[in-house]
Amino acid sequence: ELKDKVLKNQNTENEENLFEKNYIREETVRLIYQAIETLSVNCKSVIELALKGLKNTEIAEELNISINTVKTHKKEAYSQLRMKLKDVFPSLIILLGSCIKNSFRVR
Questions:
Q1: Which residue has the higher pLDDT, 77 or 99?
Q2: Is a pLDDT exceeding 70 seen at residue 105?
Q3: What's the pLDDT at 93?
Q4: How far is it, in rounded angstroms, from Cα 10 to Cα 16?
Q5: pLDDT in tens, 21-34
Q6: Phi/psi at 60 (nearest 5 deg)?
Q7: Residue 36 to residue 50: CA distance in whole angstroms
Q8: Which of 11, 63, 77, 84 has the fewest CB atoms within 10 Å, i.e. is most exposed?
Q9: In this prediction, what percent of the chain has a pLDDT beyond 70?
């Protein structure tokens, strides 16, 4: 009976940790994509393709632009994203910190 209670508690804790990790991931992705939506059309297009895993040469081919233009759009986009996300960065750190802390909780 005690063993069953311990297992039930562990399962509940694992479900809570999974929910928390999923929430953190979803919230982080939402915030990032929300910031991406505010970028110029060119920067947004480059970043979206980069997030899909395309290399600079592939992005250049896809958008019919030079590799240097891709690099310029990326640099501009990352700079803008850093500025836009700086206000939510402390919240992200708190969310990630709680996730990490819960991952190392003594069992």
A1: 77
A2: no
A3: 67
A4: 10
A5: 787 778 878 888 89
A6: -60, -45
A7: 12
A8: 11
A9: 69
Tokens of 21: 């990790």
Distance CA 105, CA 16 (A): 13
Element (H, E) at 1: none
The torsion angle over the Cα atoms of residues 7, 11, 12 and 17, rounded to 10 degrees, is 140
The closest alpha carbon to 49, from 30, 25, 69, belongs to 69
The residue count of the chain comes to: 107
85, burial (CB in 10 Å: exposed 0-12, middle 13-18, buried 19+): middle
Token pair 């297009």 is found at 45
Reduced 3-state DSSP string for 8-70: HHHHHHHHHHHHHHHHHHHHHHHHHHHHHCCCCHHHHHHHHHHHCCCCHHHHHHHHCCCHHHH
Exposed, middle or buried by CB within 10 Å (0-12, 13-18, 19+), for 46?
A: buried
Residue range 3-18, pLDDT digits in tens:
665 555 666 666 777 7
